[in-house]
Amino acid sequence: MKLQEPLLLRQHAYINGQWCAADGADTFAVHDPATDQLIAHLPLMGEAEAMRAIQAADAALPAWRDLTAKERARLLRRWFFLLEQHEEDLARLMTWEQGKPLAEARGEIRYAASFVEWFAEEAKRLYGDVIPAPRQDQTLLVMREPIGVCAAITPWNFPAAMITRKAAPALAAGCTIVIKPANETPLSALALAELAHRAGIPPGVFNIVTGDAQAIGQQFSTHPLVRKLSFTGSTPIGRLLMAQCAGTIKKVSLELGGNAPFIVFDDADLDAAVEGAIQAKFRNAGQTCVCVNRFYVHQSVYTGFLERFCARVAELRVGNGFAEASEIGPLISARAVSKVQSLLDDAVQQGARLLTGGQSLAAGPQYFAPTVIADVKPGMRLLDEEIFGPLAPVMPFASDQEVVMLANATIYGLAAYFYSRDISRVWRVARQLEYGIVGINTGMVSNEVAPFGGIKQSGLGREGSRYGIDDYLESKYLCMAC
Ligand code: ADP
Residue ranges of the Aldehyde dehydrogenase domain (predicted)? Predict the structure, then answer.
């Protein structure tokens, strides 16, 4: 794989502005999920190196915090311009290690860069408050201050954007950060570090530690110098990290699993609903936490929707992400393929109808055919478990009340989608859905200007938007007698 700028392929961790190996020189391998070929060896770091990164972030904190907001914004803007300038190389690295089609990888780099641009702007607007005092001889003020050293643990499905969505608000607020990227996709993270370095972000402000997730996670969530942990990943690991953070009362942000419903009402524009369904289900081969897990279609349009949906799904082109025609790449691992297969088998054994897909593909064993199953019923595992693959379960419903109840009957509350043209139904259902994000007549909801995050066991806090920086700030109240 050729890059225009070969130095973006880094095979060392980035701590205190230096490229470093693990103390014991141990490494782990990164593979191309499309071919299973070896791409690189990365440092297998653990507690000692994580601790050093935390200490470097702590040492860098005072000077970074004391820069003016305008100076921090300028450095973030330089980072943003470099991300834009190297979009093609960053996208190619991502397709190589993650598998997503190149067009999607380019889109993710633009999305990742947009957080850096947005929070460079927000850095300058961290206003405080003056509060009318209850006594004449007092002046009350609220100042917003950076929380301190932050730690982040990120997943493989968005190897660049999940990092910038955390690091950009942290740096804008005046915090420093240590990051552990997913072991499947560390190269994108290290390329971001290379560009942060070139932008002039000072040593220790932005650090990437690669290696043993459990050992590094342990340090990140228990070290007293870390004031905040931000995690994107599975709900079980989120629970574990939150419990570990309790010992030192860290502020915690969590972006965890989802179980997104997609509801098609009888008055929906069916063609638009099909297009929205394709986007919301099959992006990143179904491997996003806002991907649809369950389709509910009103019984009067059930057959019509299924016909059109299956026809579109059958057209999706599956193949290596580097082939420009590919719309669906490989899944991240053989384990991911077998999990989706077992959810499909369970549903079919319990009476779901396989309408399209389901078969193995010439492209290889890492790929899963885009699949639609109908007549899905309660009790099938895929209604409660996150599918994280290109498998769409569809079922009919009879009334608004019933479908809202079914949509809300989950421990998760990240994203929900529905299609309707009845304005009063739109407002009513939007209010009734217990989700942090609701897509109405659209299957695409993510951007840097809106708050992304879930309720219930899908997480804590919001990322992106003007709210996204709040998680990296503390309010300091000044009570002045005068
Ligand atoms: P997935 O199953 O999609 O990989 P995970 O929640 O396991 O989701 O992974 C998300 C991130 O959490 C990755 O960076 C992974 O390395 C990390 N991780 C996994 N296990 C732990 C752990 N015990 N402590 C800290 N981080 C972990």
Answer: 19-477
